[in-house]
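Ticket #281: bound-state structure for zinc ion.
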Amino acid sequence: MSSWKTLLLNLYYHGSRPYRRRRDRRAAAEGRVPVVVLFYHRVADDGCGSWTHSNADFARQIDWLARRFDLVSLEEAQRRIASGHNTRPTACITFDDGYADNCHTAIPLLIKRQIPCTYFVTWHNVQSGEPFPHDVALGYEGRPNTIEQIKTMAASGIEITAHCRHHHDLGKVLDPARLVDEIVTARDELQDCIGRPVRYLALPFGQYANLTSDAFALARASGYAGLCSAYGGYNYPGNDPFHIQRIHADDLARLKNRATIDPRTAVVPRFCDTPMGVPQT
Ligand SMILES: [Zn+2]
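RESOLUTION: The complex was predicted; output attached.
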């Protein structure tokens, strides 16, 4: 992001802080503090790809978040959403895809600080070692995690979870058998590999067009505890805790604005997993 955009975003954040504080106090008094669930992809210092954070940026973001939020597991986040009453600033850290570089510094940092983390892996890429198709299309090849890495993370308290078998757009998958393979069979294989339950699912890309009521229904029926989208939005107390809306962490200036309840993020329509599958306000 250009430096003048960063400057403007920082000015906007600091200029609107009194308003944000007033609104936060009101939300806390009413028990309506939303749960912010963030997602990262890759943390490395090679600058490859727009989804990569440097190690220093990631550490700064975690420092900033840890000073302002209860950093909790997805399970605790769901409990606060389901209770219908939340008075605490609450955030969760998640990762998507499963990049090997995350195990060098970012994941050890979270483990050392005992910050819960949910880590969604695309099972085919972990098994095969093949780079992700969206990276190949952009001309670089961030390596996926190895099986050894995900076992080590799981043993260290990182919650390993499912990002389907392939990193494909399931919004275009109409074949029920293929949907079962992507969502259920791949999850079962991942569970067998790490020897632990795989409780959560994030659909690849996670935008409205990539979500379907069939995928939600299958995830619910096959025993997942929750499904994460990635189009933005907050999770308010009283929302359906099964569907967890997530916000991309991006750079620190954007993160500060989004995580402290930006009006633009507050009005993101919530995907409704009815057969119509249309966004709902
Ligand atoms: Zn992904």
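RESOLUTION NOTES: The longest strand covers residues 35-40.
TICKET STATUS: resolved
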